Amino acid sequence: MTHPFRKPRLRPLVQGLCLSLLLTSLTSAQAQLRNPDAPSVVPRIPGARQLSTDLKLPGKPTTADYIVAVVDQEPITHLDVDKRVARIQETAPAGSRLPPPDELRRQVLDALIDEKVQISHARTVGLNVPDAEVDAAIENIAAQNKLSLREMQRRMEADGLDYPRYRASLREQILLQRLRDREVNARIQISDSDIDAFLATDPAAQTEVALNLAHILIPVPEQATPAQIEALAAKARQVQEQARSGGNFNQLVRTHSADTQTKEQGGAFGMMPVSRLPDLFVSAVRDLKVGEVAPVVRSNAGFHIIKLVERENSAEASYTQQRSRHILLRANPKESTQAQVARLAEIRREIVSGGAGFAQMARQHSQDGSAANGGDLGWASPGQFVPEFERALTALQAGEISQPIVSRFGVHLIQLIERREVKLTDAQKREAARAVLRERRFESTYEDWARELRAAAWVEMRDAP
Q: With contact defined as beta carbons under 8 Å apart, do 412 and 389 qualify?
């Protein structure tokens, strides 16, 4: 059975790192397939290519504003740069090193100019984002933060954030992602001979290419004493033993991890090539099976407890499949998303308390075609579900039930039944090779495309008053 939220093909086996909510989760409700070959690639300092679910928003401006650049008659202000710099500094992964302040501001301004140029181009070619899609995106962000839409609006107002401006900014971010996916990927051509050569000669075709790791970070302060370090190491060993013995990893992340970027995703980084992961992490999980937890490792940021969530392996030609079931309440103008979330939360409480079984409640309440089978979706390969559904599923342990999850199709309650590793078919091996080659070419292709657009635009730089 094909479900409306399932994508009927294997996704590329290599994906970019996602430490916050990717805009690919906000793509058109009318487009049931995400662009299958669009890795997340950004300039040195990213433009609005990601939307964080963190609602620690900047307060009301306290300094005078002025224009620092004009792009095709659209201004970029000093405060625009300030806010983007603040967001980057607040959401930088623990232990990361940002450029010096002046260089950071220069790179941020450069990225904002690129965004303005690309937004102008998107409007010229007729791309747009419907109001309904923006509404769905905001509701999804509110749900990720465990807030109702009204609670989210009140929090924004209290923090001095103008809600209509936030909404307009979100619309632009979705528009940018759609434009980049469409125009950059159209420039990348991978031939059958390219794939043949890759499979025959490239070392990447003979080695493990992608992992999804989850971690718990126990930070160590820079000036920590030996006694403090030993106490933190003991805490890390204790948490690792709980995780290794079958403790709920998601709960351990929420309780102990200091990595705010991955905390809401159960500590998971998402599927990414080993070349983009720290060697320390790759070495720690090399001999693990999917679902196992590595011994504690130490980095400059602190101690890490690392779990291998998924593995996609070209050498062994294997990848991880997941079997799940769900209850879906479809988007309905007669019932708000908040009401549907509340309904599914109550159903979840009844299941968890033992008052009813998941399959029983799916048959009774689900509005999906899988309801007759107790919500069972069968075995699914990576990328067969829309991103918001798959992120929630990947964060679960076997038998665990998610909180209500908002997608473009409605609200879901998801249960992971089990995981397994399966062999790739020859066609899937070629698809994996195509994805690797496409990702290798994406960044340079994106840079060329962005440079061409900027060269054709009118950009005026202005000095501070």
A: yes
Low-confidence stretches of the chain (pLDDT beneath 70): 1-63, 93-96, 144, 203-209, 313-317
Q: What whole-number distance in Å separates Cα of residue 268 and Cα of residue 10?
A: 21
For residue range 133-154, list pLDDT tens digits in order. 888 788 777 776 777 788 888 8
Strands annotated E in 238-370: 272-273, 297-298, 302-313, 318-330
**Where does residue 388 rank: exposed (0-12), middle (13-18), buried (19+ CB within 10 A)?**
buried
For helices 163-187 and 149-158, what crossing angle results, to 10°?
Answer: 110
Sign of CA dihedral 61, 63, 68, 70: positive
What pLDDT, in 10s, does the model give residues 180-210? 989 998 999 999 999 999 888 776 665 556 8
Rounded distance, CA 445 to CA 345, Å? Answer: 45
Token duo for residue 282: 């790759």
DSSP code of residue 308: E
Measured CA to CA, the distance from residue 202 to residue 176 in angstroms comes to 33
Task: Locate 259 and state its tokens.
Answer: 């990595």
Is the pTM higher than 0.70? The answer reads no
Whether the CB-CB separation of 140 and 412 falls below 8 Å is answered with no
The structure tokens 């062994």 sit at 316
Q: Identify whether the C-beta of residue 370 lies closer than 8 Å to the C-beta of residue 377.
A: yes
For the segment 339-380, what is each residue's pLDDT rounded down to a tens digit? Answer: 899 999 999 999 999 999 999 999 999 999 999 999 999 999
CB 272 within 8 A of CB 211: yes
Q: Is there a contact between 22 and 140 (Cβ–Cβ < 8 Å)?
A: no
Three-state secondary structure call for residue 37: coil
409: tokens are: 């199709």
Do the bridges between strand 376-380 and strand 459-461 make them parallel or antiparallel, or are there none, so unpaired?
A: unpaired
